[in-house]
Amino acid sequence: MNNTDYLMLSGIQHFVFCKRQCGLIHLEQAWNENTLTLEGQALHERVDNPEAENRPNIKIERSLSIKSERLKLFGRADLVEFHKIDKQNYKPFPVEYKRGKPKQGLEDKIQLCAQAFCLEETFDCEIVKGALFYGKEKRRQEVEFNTELRAQTIKAAEGFHEMMKNNFLPPSEFGPKCKNCSLIEICLPESEGIKIEEYLNSHDSIL
Ligand code: SF4
């Protein structure tokens, strides 16, 4: 296995939300304080799942290292429940924790589905569904890993790899989503696809 072939699984969520945001984070390492703070908060806001933990037929694994040969992605699953299906066998059920509330876009579902691909490879099984837990609403949303979502996940993984391989920073896709983007000040969505280094070189006064 060549490690450079593998990308961070969390990047698929950035890629689906906005290709430029994904490029800024994964090609340009353009984090800002806000991004790090929010992601840090998200980790700490992750709530326990006493319901599942008290059920005798469910075992819990947290922060499980996962990878998929098929998608060439690796990362960690927040929480995986192993549901007992008979005397000896368990089936994985991934649960991803998110701050905020359910989104209109598919980014969270695709990230969860990518986790399911990883777990299916690791445990040689089929996983039909998982769940997203949204901190703001404190409720689970079940996600079915149907053919359509699987196809969208494969396509997103391929697009993410293509972007990284070509070292191509996509142009901005200015729209309503930008107001929720922590990289808006770095992205400068009106300045179509300019690289950060180019922007900084042309604005010596702020260096
Ligand atoms: S500001 Fe808008 S275009 Fe720029 S990275 Fe964020 S979401 Fe994408």
Describe the structure.
The chain is of the alpha/beta class and 207 residues long. The protein has a single domain (3-201), classed as Lambda Exonuclease, Chain A (Alpha-Beta Complex). 39% of the residues lie in helices and 22% in strands. It has 8 helices and 6 strands, in the order βααααβββαββααα. The protein has helices at 10-17, 19-26, 33-45, 50-53, 107-123, 147-166, 184-187, 196-201; strands at residues 7-8, 58-68, 73-84, 90-98, 129-134, 139-144. Strands 1, 2, 3, 4, 5 and 6 form a 6-stranded mixed β-sheet that branches. It starts with 6 loop residues before the first strand and ends in a 6-residue tail after the last helix. 28% of the residues are buried. The mean pLDDT is 84. Bound molecules: iron/sulfur cluster. Residues 18, 20-21, 24, 172-174, 177-178, 181, 183-184, 187, 189 line the site of iron/sulfur cluster.
Into which percentage range does the β-strand content fall?
15-25%
The CATH architecture would be Alpha-Beta Complex
Give a quick account of the main beta sheet: strands, pairing sense, barrel closure. Answer: 6 strands, mixed
What is the succession of H and E elements? EHHHHEEEHEEHHH
What's the CATH class, please? Alpha Beta
Mean pLDDT across every amino acid position: 84
Quaternary form: single chain
> Which structural class best describes the helix and strand composition?
alpha/beta
Count of separate structural domains:
1
Please provide the count of β strands. 6
Form type: globular
**Separation of termini?**
41 Å
In this entry the ligands are: iron/sulfur cluster
Fraction of residues in H or I helices: 25-40%
The gyration radius over C-alpha positions equals: 18 Å
The low-pLDDT segments are: none
* Helix run count: 8
CATH topology: Lambda Exonuclease, Chain A
